[in-house]
Each structure stands twice: as C-alpha cells, then as structure tokens.
Amino acid sequence: MKNYKRTLRRIVYGVSAVLLLLLMASLASPAFADTCVGNCGTLGANGVVPLSPTGNSSYQFVSTNLGLNGVGALPTGALGSETNGSTFTTSLFSAAAGDPLNFYFNYTSSDGAGFADYAWAGLFDSSNGLVALLFTARTTPSGDAVPGFGVPLPVATLTPSTVAINDGATTWSPLGGSSGACFDGVGQGCGSTGWVLSNYTIANSGSYFLEVGVVNWIDTEFDSGLALDGITVAGAPIEPPTTTPEPASIVMLASGMVAAGAFRRKIAGK
Questions:
Q1: What spatial distance separates the first Cα and last Cα of the chain, rounded to whole Å?
Q2: What CA–CA distance (Å, rounded) separates 196 from 107?
Q3: pLDDT at 28
C-alpha cells in the first residue's frame, strides 16, 4: 500500500510540474520569431560589405544564392520573370503612433544588363497587411540602383536619397560562386550600394513586423543580396511582445493544478 501511495504521489507531482511549466511558457513565449525563407544569415565585415555605421559587430543578410523558387518577389505584386530568392522577417513588435522605424541596408549584386535583380523592404501589420513598401534597390547598367527602376518609389526617407552602384564591387561571401564576379563585366550594373539609412514614421499604434527580400530576375545565375542592420523603433532595438494566453487556457491550467493538489491531499489523508 505504501508503494502504491508513493507512486501516486510521484504521478501527481509530475502532472503539477508539467501544468506549471505550460502556464509559464504560455505567459512568456513570443508571438512571432525571426524567420527566414531561403538563404539568410549573420556576418561580420566581409568583402565589399563592411560593418554598418551603427557600430554593431555583425549584420544580417538575405541572398538569392541558394534561394527558393517563387520567393522574394515584391509584396505589391510580382513584376513577372522573377525566379528564386529569399526573405527575412523580423519578430512582431509594438510601436506607438509617430514612432520612427530606422535601419541600414546595403545592396550588392553580381548581375547586370537585362537581368535586373532587385531587393526591397516592407512594413506589415499583425494581420500580414502591407503598411508601406519602404524602399527598393535594383540592378541597372546605368543610373541609380536606389531607388530601384521600374518598381514602386520608396515611402521611407533614404539617406542618401539616391545611390549609384559602386561598379565591380561584388566580393561578398553570401553571393556564393558569384562573389567577385560581374555578369557582362564592370559597368553593366554589378556592384554594391554601400550602407543606406532608411527612416519611416509609423502613423498608427499597433503591432508590426519588417520583412526584406531579394530575388533573381529572368535567370538564377549571378546572385544578389541585401545586408541589414540596426533596426530600431523610437531609438530602441525591436523587442517582440509577449502573448497573453486566452482566459480559457489559464482557467484550464489552473483548474488542473487545483485538481492535482486536491488529489494529492486525498491520497495523503489515507
């Protein structure tokens, strides 16, 4: 009989501990986590892409190299002829009306001529609705790479406002086998923009996430990528909000713990 009671006590204690852990996890788990579709990563200074002006020791990137088919097209609608690419999506974050959203980006492409790869950044609300297409960058054999040609104009304020690509600057490991290469040679659109500051004022209070993407155009050769760093809202790094479990979930967990405790006392009294 003693062994039977001891076994039941151990079962009750275990159930109580599991219920408590579940309750704690439901109170503290983030609503969203940073996600990548395709090829993303973190790097220090590498090739033609140095550390950003933030002074951080690393930056994030997305690249068409090893990207996935059908990924990376503009959220406003594909232009046609996009092939493979990658996207990076931040955690959901809270913002108040009037909060500035700031970050740096650097677009690097080994492609050129008629194979106009492009990159973009968009601000989305918690219902996945596009709030603003912040900027675009695109391979071009002449003129400015930022804003991108043939794509929507940026809504964010960019500093500098226009950027011509640094011809031939393509040595960057996220480009894989295309690093250091230039399709059709220097002067045909391959190169790097250097770091550009994007600033956007969020109009309404709410929960948002930032997404960036890069995509190959027409073919899957001679890759392009986007470096990203220093994402802040109202001057602070974005922090994901915590989810509050539904009242019913809390009641169920609490009820289970109460029942387990009552059962333990009943056993102890025998």
A1: 10
A2: 9
A3: 38
Q: Which residues contact 87 (CB under 8 A, 6 or more apart)?
A: 36, 37, 38, 62, 71, 72, 211, 212, 213
- Identify the CA nearest to 95 among candidates 241, 257, 249, 263: 241
DSSP 8-class letter at 77: -
Q: Show the tokens assigned to 186.
A: 């220097």
C-alpha 29/C-alpha 11 separation (Å) is 27
Taking Cα atoms as reference points, which of 114, 127, 122, 147 lies closest to residue 219?
Answer: 114
Within a 10 A sphere around the Cβ of 214, how many other Cβ atoms? 33
How many residues in the chain?
A: 270
Give the pair of three-digit tokens for residue 235.
Answer: 């001057």
Please, are residues 171 and 191 in contact by the beta-carbon 8 Å criterion? Answer: no
Chain segment 22-31, per-residue pLDDT in tens: 444 443 333 3
Report CA dihedral (117, 123, 125, 129) to the nearest 10 degrees.
Answer: -40
How far is CA 69 from its chain centroid?
Answer: 18
The residue assigned the tokens 């059908």 is: 70
CB 226 within 8 A of CB 72: no
Could you tell me the CA-to-CA distances from 201 to 98, 117, 231, 233, 235 in Å, in that order?
Answer: 6, 28, 13, 9, 12
137, 139, 143, 147 alpha-carbon torsion, rounded to 10°: -10
Q: Which DSSP state fits 259?
A: H
| Tokens at 188, concatenated | 């045909």
- Average pLDDT score over residue span 84-102: 97
In degrees, rounded to 5, the angle at the alpha carbon of residue 211 between the alpha carbons of residues 205 and 214 is 155
pTM of model > 0.85: no
Predicted local distance difference test score (pLDDT) of residue 151? 93
Over 60: is that where the pLDDT of 8 sits?
Answer: no
Instruction: Tell me the one-letter amino acid at 5.
Output: K
Q: What is the reported pLDDT for 94?
A: 96
